[in-house]
Amino acid sequence: MQASHSRPAAMITSNTVLDLIDAFRRSKTMFAAVELGIFDGKRPPDCKELGRLLDACVSLGLLHKTGDTYLNTPETDKYLRSESPDTMAGYVRYSNDVLYPMWAHLEDAVREGGHRWQQTFGFEGPIFSHFFRSDEAMREFQRGMHGFGRLSSPAVAAAFDLSRFRRLIDLGGGTGHLAEAARERYPHLEAQVFDLPGVAQMFPGTIAGDFFTDPLPEADLYSLGRILHDWSEDKIRMLLSKIHAALPDGGGLLIAEKLLNPEYVSGHMQSLNMLIVTEGRERSAAEYETLLRAAGFAQVDSRHTGAPVDAILAIK
């Protein structure tokens, strides 16, 4: 049985409201600790109230305290230490430096529609003009996406039986976490990433190109991991039609995205995030099926994975 994002409807109480008021404080505490290098063992000497921050991290379960010594928990060591292979520190820094200030303009995004790049940072988007403004910015963004992908990609690769396919091209696949997860589950599967030239230079074996403008490498299975939610419906329709045309009969498209339902809180928070940061949004399984069938796909199936993103498989 697939895990569901739904949860029983709960009565809203004063504690619920208080918890929501407090929630951003907990996030910002973790953000600040990552920014200051706390989980990498650093104790900046110029911080007059470092003890308060450390004790707050203890209260959140991010640190252990013994006497005057603060140590990472095993989970913190895995997910928040910069040098861990599973680190999400890059995504935390992106959340702190980019998302946190942009979310301050949520009301304007709702009133006016459209992202908040100009209002927050003084330049017009799109989103990737910021992430790819320098090699260091691109590398930091890719590291953040890699940590997130390590949590999600194994569940996406396991959501459907992909044993019939022989060659996977992960479009916009960054560090290759989804391709790696697919290869680990299906050792016979040849899997490569197709991404922008700047990304390809960073990760050997990546095929350089733009999936909107360049011909797609030959494959019987393409994948799109957290790509479609970034773009407008017109661009999505164009991309899906292009992928459909490139596939052989019986070929497939594996999509990794959050699938909305009315009670899926994380999905709706991410859809607001897409409003603030991109020209896209999150969608339900039915909405994705409508887009995929309009592009010519004959069979569409979706799965809730229990991971941070879900999975859709469309067959030509």
Task: Kindly describe this structure.
The chain folds into 2 domains: 14-82, Arc Repressor Mutant, subunit A; 154-315, Vaccinia Virus protein VP39 (Rossmann fold). Helix 12 links the parallel strand 8 and strand 9 (283-284). The strands form 3 sheets. A 7-stranded mixed beta sheet has the order 5-4-3-6-7-11-10, sandwiched between helices. It has a two-stranded antiparallel ribbon with strand order 1-2. With 316 residues, the protein is α/β, with parallel strands linked by helices. The chain is built from 13 helices and 11 strands.
Beta strands, count: 11
Characterize the biggest β-sheet: 7 strands, mixed
At the fold tier of CATH, the topology name of the largest domain is Rossmann fold
Determine the structural class based on helices, strands and strand pairing.
alpha/beta
CATH class of the largest domain: Alpha Beta
The CATH architecture of the largest domain would be 3-Layer(aba) Sandwich
How many domains, as an integer?
Answer: 2
- In quaternary terms, these chains amount to single chain
Mean pLDDT, all residues: 92
Q: Rg from C-alpha positions?
A: 21 Å
Task: Give, in spatial order, the strands making up the sheet with the most strands.
Answer: 5-4-3-6-7-11-10
What is the percentage of strand-forming residues? 5-15%
**Could you tell me how far the N terminus lies from the C terminus, measured between alpha carbons in angstroms?**
26 Å
Number of DSSP helices? Answer: 13
Uncertain runs with pLDDT below 50, 5 residues or more? none
Shape: globular
How helical, in percent, are the residues? 40-55%
